[in-house]
Amino acid sequence: MIRTRMLFAASAALALGACQTVPSFDQPATNAPAASQPGVVSAADPRAAEAGAEILRQGGSATDAAIAVMLALTVVEPQSSGIGGGGFFVRTNTAGDLITIDGRETAPAEAGPDWFLGPDGEPLGYRDAVISGRSVGVPGNIALAASAHEQYGKLEWAALFQPAIRLARDGWALSERGAYYVERVRERAVHQPEGEALFLDAEGNVLPVGTMLTNADLAATLEALATDGPAHMYADRAGELAAHVAAQTPGDAAMRTSDITEYSAVSRPAVCGDYREYTICSMGPPSSGATTVLAILGQLERFDIAAMGPESHTAWHLFAESQRLAYADREAYLADPDYVSVPAGITDPAYLAARSLLMAPGTRMTAVEAGTPPGIALAPPDGDEPVENGTSHFAVTDSAGNMVSWTSTIEGPFGSGLMFGGYYLNNELTDFSFRPDIDGAVVANRVEGGKRPRSSMSPTIVFDENGTAVLAIGAAGGGTIPVQVAKALVGYIDWDLTAQDAISLPMLYSPGDTIAIEEDNVVPGLQAALEALGHSVAARELPLKANAVEWRGGRWIGAADPRSEGVAVTQ
Questions:
Q1: Which residue, of 197, 213, 236, 363, is most buried by count of CB atoms within 10 Å of its CB?
Q2: Which residues form the catalytic set?
Q3: How far apart are alpha carbons 506 and 177 in whole angstroms?
């Protein structure tokens, strides 16, 4: 049975964010990764992965390399992440010490429950909400990077910016994926003149794949951040940034300079739990990553998934059913723990065991609702959040055995479409519920001033039975992220697959009443088998992009999703 690694107060309804994580184990770490083994960087773009490996070769730590990856992704993968957004950072070392840093964006102080409501009291259209300053949260990635570097950096801060500065100044080739997203979400990519100048030719056509692009404004921003540190964003240019966002925001309420100057990345306790003989640690609220991954796995624990094997229709049916239960709880309970008391019982072993009994190998649950974990009398209502998109994950290990798992995002492709200093600003605030209440009941993930919106990001580190960190993994793709991670962990743990093969497994996404499967990567006969059980199944393209680093065969090995442009690079 899954066992959460936390110290709870007497009440099981204690907010998860207030818990003290205990990444302790029954035995001391043995057979720890050798310090002499080269580190590895796995990222969603080869240029970013190489940037991290370059820092490792200079003697940088895993944290240094991860910062360099995040900065390089700002240049080469602007549709997915960067310094205009935020992220979650999870780190461990050979001693098993564990830290997580919350660099999630925050809503302006002026924001309130009606932030996304129109004059008629109804929610704004998604496009109207996104392409405006109303969708932009205060960026957190630079503050996150500074906090991580202060604690775990080895190289000078400025050195970490040099690969990204070179890329922005000297040029990088437009990738196939990059060109695809410019065309697909053109209204955001080229919403402002800076985007047009970056991606379009004189006739207004998207530049061909392979075209060398340069971004002088972003190079200047990165150079200033390298020289002046985080103050360049959170003090020196805070007024300009706030004014730029405010100018795009309809109505009187807008981002203020103080929203930016008062921002800070926050150290939070990780949320950990056991699945089989492994301990899985990930990001707690405001991320729904850890709780959702642990719920999916905890509800599967009583079934012999290993014996079923990766081509078992029953195993995938149970995986779908467990998602339905986990996402029902996620939608009701998960939100910023500084504003909402997220029930600790949501990952309680007895609670997950009871939820698991709703599942059966040969039957589909007709209806799924949020449960009532210990200490909760009535579940809050499901909010009204748009579909999440985007994001980038990267995993890094260094030769000292330190491991970093970091997921970074600006939300949808090219975020809000607004650019400042050569980078795109996020649209993370559309991860809030547009409706603050449902039938008079308050939604946990409603908009509030200074609040961080709920996220699906699931940067994860896995420890074996001896307490040795053996896998860093995460994914991109909005709401699919916890499922991608859970699926890979089932493959890695139950089916004894390498991280690469576990990531490559077919994807099945079932957060509600319809199961989505991949169009061209599916277990033979699965759709018909699921439909025979009463499932509604749709084959479609899914936004999948996972990255990992594992300890196997006495060395670090990287893994990258074959559906993406991602690669792993050795130090």
A1: 213
A2: 391
A3: 21
